[in-house]
User: Fold this.
Amino acid sequence: MTTKTLNASAAGLGFLPAVFAIVLGLGVITLTGHVQAAALHDAAHDVRHATGFPCH
Assistant:
């Protein structure tokens, strides 16, 4: 009986990563949909310079 309980509880946690990914993805889409295009470009440009990736 204990083994069945442990297996059921472990199987019940399998959906948490999927829920987290969906919430994170919707959050990113929502934020990028409401921010100004110039702000997105500037942020991406600054990240490229900070990581040493050539962008010019």
